[in-house]
Amino acid sequence: MSFGIFAQEQITLEACYQLVNTNYPLIKQNAILEKQHAKDLEIINTGKLPQVDFNAQATYQSDVIEIPIPNAGIEPLNNDQYRASVSVNQLIYDGGIINAKTTAKQAALKARKKEVEVSVYQLKKQVNQLYFSVLLLQEKRNLLSTKQIQLQTKLKEVRSGIENGVVLPTSDKVLEAELLKIKQQFTELDKNKLVLIETLSSLIVSPLSSTTKFMKSLSTSPISRCGLGRRPASGCRKVPGRNLHQSSRIFLPRLHWKRLRWTANSSCRQAWTPLPH
Q: Residue 234 in contact with residue 99, Cβ under 8 Å?
């Protein structure tokens, strides 16, 4: 039996919280943030990999230098010249930039998760208020039903007295008026309850009806023991400042090891090349 069919019969506050965690779109944002964070870390870590650049150049000289010495055995230069180069850069020391970026991304992820957590807390708080409002209306209806039964019993006794001539003929009019008021109160309660149930159904993304029975929670403190817990807003304020602190560490010097190989003259050289800030 699916929960949607079961919810039309009865539901608990704990089940409402569980439906919020399962169905509400905002909850799924945490998984999206985790995937984006993994991609960001992957991009940042590519800075540790060697970078290879290949360049090729071909030129044609309309005029080349010739040495005017007869029988010198020196061949003149070719008009077409080719040159190719391969540049390999390997990061050796970055001043902690990659680690700082990683820490900053982790702080940003934590801040976004806190924002989602605060939003979910507010959502569950609304669910909590709606649920107990429905319970209150449910109890009011039970009290009215008890009062209606008592008035109907009293009305039967009064009408019996009227038939026997013991009670005045107009004595039942007062009780009939009270029963009419109770019917009007039933209509108003049912209308308000339906509005609350429809709102709650949209929040938990699960079908509910006016016939759904809302069960009382077994916990003595529904706010602290039924899924709300402590308000998470206090922990969310500290993260952005830490994020800015980590971001300020990114402007540090970096040092690369660079090796160039020129195929034109087969020369090879090595150099330590600090990149600009």
A: no
The mean pLDDT of 101-127, rounded to a whole number, is 89
The structure's pTM equals 0.61
CA 67 to chain centre: 77
CB 200 within 8 A of CB 131: yes
**Tens-place pLDDT, residues 47-81:** 888 888 888 888 877 776 666 666 666 666 677 77
Task: Determine the Cα–Cα distance for residues 212 and 169; give it in Å rounded to an integer.
Answer: 43
The Cα–Cα gap between 31 and 120 comes to 15
In sequence order, which ranges of the chain are alpha helices (DSSP H)?
3-7, 13-23, 29-45, 97-163, 171-204, 222-225, 233-236, 238-247
* CATH 1.20.58.220 matches 3-49+97-255: no
CB atoms within 10 A of CB 35: 10
Query: Own/partner pairs for 267-275, CB < 8 Å, 24+ apart?
Result: none
